[in-house]
Amino acid sequence: MYLTTGEIRYHRVDPASVPQQEGGGEVYGPKYIFFSARKDETYLSRVFLDSRCVPHLQAGGEAAVAVEEVLDIMGSAPGCMGVLHDGALRGMHRDTIARYGGLVINKQHKGTNRNITTPYALGAAPMSCGSRTGA
Q1: Phi, psi (deg, nearest 5) at residue 4
Q2: Which residue among 34, 36, 104, 121 is least crowded, i.e. fewest CB within 10 A of its CB?
Q3: 85 and 104 in contact (C-beta within 8 Å)?
Q4: How does pLDDT run across 95-119, given as a tens digit for each residue?
Q5: Is 90 exposed, middle or buried (0-12, 13-18, 19+ CB in 10 A)?
Q6: Taking Cα atoms as reference points, which of 34, 16, 122 lies closest to residue 85?
Q7: Long-range contacts made by residues 35-42, C-beta under 8 angstroms, separation at least 24?
Q8: How many helices (H) and strands (E) does the chain have?
């Protein structure tokens, strides 16, 4: 099959394939969120609970879709206590899930200013018994 100059070719295009920010870099394609659970420590016991596409320029981005998905899962899975998620969830997202009764465990967002505290050995904290402000 030879193509001539100016020939119109038709090919499949995924309208959800757009530049996305992922892991500090730009990738091209659709963005999906998946949630799964495991029965126990067995690696092959994973069950997918839900997956959703994150529309390009979605208000709230990945985190908004993730919060909606978590609330739907918690509403239909009695005993679900919360979610383990990546750094896309921030305070307002964690708060929404917490108000629904869920626990969120996620890493700190890269853009967050950290307050580094000094670690103390067990029993060596500079606080006397009965005092909350320290000795």
Answers
A1: -100, 160
A2: 121
A3: yes
A4: 999 999 999 998 776 666 666 656 6
A5: middle
A6: 34
A7: 35/69, 35/70, 35/73, 35/83
A8: 2, 6
Q: How many CA atoms lie within 13 A of 59 on its CB side?
A: 0
- CA distance linking residue 90 with residue 62, whole number of Å: 11
pTM of the model: 0.66
For the chain, the C-alpha Rg in angstroms (whole number) is: 23
Average pLDDT, the chain: 78
- Structure-token pair, residue 19: 């530049």
- Give the amino acid at 55: P
- Other beta carbons within 10 angstroms of residue 69's beta carbon come to 18
Question: Hey, which residues does 52 pair with through a beta bridge?
Answer: 33
